[in-house]
Structure formats: structure tokens, C-alpha cells
Amino acid sequence: MPTTAIDHKKLLINNEWRDAAGGRTMDVINPATEEVIATVGAAGQEDVDAAVTAARAAFEGPWGKMSARERGRLLSKLADRVMERADELAALETRHNGKPIFEARQIEIPAAAECLEYYAGWADKVMGETIPVKGNYLTYTLREPLGVIGAIVPWNFPLLLASWKVGPALATGNTVILKPAPETPLTALALGEIAIEVGLPPGVLNVLTGPGADVGQALVAHPGIDKIAFTGGTNTGKAIMRSAADTLKRITLELGGKSPNIVLADADLDAALRGATSGIFYGKGEVCAAGSRLLVDRSIKDQFMEKVAARAKKMVAGDPMDPKTRYGSLVSKRQLEIVERYVAVAKQEGATLVAGGGRADIGTGKGFFFQPTVFDHVTPEMTIAREEIFGPVLAAIEFGDVDEAIARANQSPYGLAAAVWTRDIKKAHYVARKLQAGTVWINTYNIFDTAAPFGGYKASGFGREMGAHALEHYTQVKSVWVDLNL
After folding, report:
1. Which of 44, 63, 372, 461 is the least crowded, having the fewest Cβ atoms under 10 Å away?
2. DSSP for 390-425?
3. Is 337 a catalytic residue?
4. Which residue in 35, 108, 254, 472 is the catalytic one?
């Protein structure tokens, strides 16, 4: 890997590449090597104002006047071009996030393209309805775009989560200001380049890089933005709700999780073993839906945990750019330190460490690598059972029967995802209905499709990403009454 920065990246406003108005920049770090790989602009209020002006002009001008079908064609071209540049995009994603190139190239980038393609197909199918009302009136509804969307995305799946917002927003006729995480801005900027390449009009997709406390807050507070679509931490989501109240803008929030992965005694234990480990260690545990709480029936827990620990110990961190690597580095030094603090607290509170627990070294002496970590004998009151770590740390909790498993699973402020492993189909559906989570997997984990909605209960947020349900959050309904009385 080169030791110098890739490039100096500017902000994208109105299809023009601009330096940040204040001249500020920030470095992008490769978490596997700790090298600076790019320097990008750090936007401020003036840049946000300019982006809002450009997005509003596009919304009221060429984009708003374009037919829905033509918008769909452009969105389809965007999807095609993402796949044409998949190798480049995957390399960028790996280099600023630390995930294995296999995950970036084979899973994330294709999924992002698929999402854009899916919503391209929806563009000319967002329709109103006629309503039979009392009296001699023709009453119908129009489903119209909201306007300017502020899309704020995190660093764990940078391009994929951007597509979850950009896709439905553009398909329904809105314009977008995309704000990537400061750790991972490169693929958002690349998406902006592709938008220009395929012919999106100026102002339709703008990309502002910079610190969340500056750019994100400015977007949330701006009266010219009609909606904020946010994915990130629950505390930040709460702050967005408070700030958005001042302008009464729409918001959707996909927030944190502490998802339970329940293994019943009658489960296929080999399949459950694979699901338990991939559920927490895929993406280095930096996944909002990670199965970070493993709930295991008391009668099988000891034997099952021996296998979980053994499997975790076999997972070895490696160079994320090596196609054979399946476990990469955490995204930043800060995230590494957070994980280390949680591991220390777990030990202090009496949990039993059975695998991992420390930094990993791939032979370079560099990088923010952490071992796949498993704690046994965790109780629901312990910190690692209650708080989201966002790292490769699994907390195993035992239960006595199905109802206790459900109670312990729901004993959390979060409700993003959950899973249950059992051969009993009646029991599986019973548990699925009782779990307080936006997604429940049965005998599988971490399966997604653009057609299926995803979002949380409770402190995991509200609104839905993906599927037809996402379209509701980027449109508003107008009722029209026509007097037909003679």
C-alpha cells in the first residue's frame, strides 16, 4: 500500500468540486496501516447553505420537472455504473473502513448497486389513489416528494447505507445532501463522481464531508432541509430529534442495537454455531444488527459455548486487502479503545473470558485489530449485556425455558434485530411474534434484501429502510377534492 495520500478530495455542490469555504481539511486514515490515505474538505455552515440552495434549485427546477420514468432511468444508470466501478469502490471501502476486501467487493458494493436498481424500478410506480367519499365529489390523493433530504450515514457500511437513503429519495423526486462519516468519506465522494458521469442534473446529489458535530448539526438545524434520514448511534439520534423539533422537519432514525441471538435446546447446533459466530464477528462486530447477546438454553450451554469459543479462536485477523482475509481491523483507534474499555469492564463485573480479549497483530505492528472475543456467564445486568459495544464482543447469557428466553431477549432498551434457532416451527413463530425487534431471523442471521424493510423498535429508532415501506418516508400525501355537483 502507498504511504502517501491518495488525493485531495473536495466537496461536491451543484455538480462542482469545491474547497470547503473555510479552507479546512481533514485526513482519512487507513485503520489497518494507520497511514493517511486521503485529505478531504471539512465543510462548514457556508457550505451547507450552498448545498441547500443548489438542492432546492434542482428540486424546483430540472429534477422536479423531469418525468418519473426518466428519473428511474438515471437511477438505473447510477446502479450500473456503481457495478462497473465495483473493484475501485471496494478498494476504497476497505482502505478507509478496515473490512476485508472480500466483504466489500462481493457483498457491500453489489448490495449498494442492487438497492439503487431496485428503487429505479419504483420511480414511476409511486401513485396516489381515488377515494369513495360521501357526496358528489371526485376525491383523489397525490403522493409528492418532500423536497431536500439530508442523509447522514455512518462508517460501518458507508456506500451501502448511503444507497439505502439516496435510492428511495431520488426515486420519489427529492434531492439529496449526503453527509458521510468523517472516517469513511471516500465512497460517498466516488458516488458523487458517478452521479455526474451518468447525467444527474446539478444539485440533485451533493456530498459534504466533515465532522458530524459541525456538518451534521448544521444540516439538522437548517430550515431549508425538509427531512433528515440518519443512521448512527442512539444518543446522536436523540440529539437530532431535539434539534429537528425547531424546524419541524421529518426524520427517520436507524439507531443502535443489542440484538439477541436465541439458541433453543432443539436447534441444529452446527447451524446455530455458525450463526452465533457470524452474527457477531461479521464486519468485526461493527454492525448495528450484530447478534451481540447470545442466549443459550441452560441444558446445552456448556457444550455449545465450548464450540463457540473454539470457533472464535480460529478466526485470525489479516490484511484487509488480501482476498483471503475474512476478519479485518476496527475502523479507528477510538473504536479500538472503546472495545478495550468494555472488555475491561466485563472482566471487572465478573464475566468469564473464554476467547480473545485483546489486540490482534497481523505482523506489521500497525493497525486497529482486535481479537474475536467471547464472554460466558454474563448476566442481564452486566454492562456488556446492556450497552452497544459496536465491536467483536459476544456476551453469552443462559435461560431455562422459552418464555425466559423471550423475557431476557426483550430486557433491553434496543429492538433492532433478533434471531431464534429451533427445529420446532410452532415454537419459532411463537418466539418471533413475542420478540420486540424490527427484524427477526429464524434459523439464520444477518440476511438482508432490498425488498424487505429494515428498522427498529424502541431505542433502535423509527422508520424503515428498504422495501416499499421506505418510500413512505420520502413522500407526503395531498388530498384533492373536485365538486361534481351540477
Report:
1. 44
2. -SSEEEEEEESSHHHHHHHHT-SSEESEEEEE-S-H
3. no
4. 254
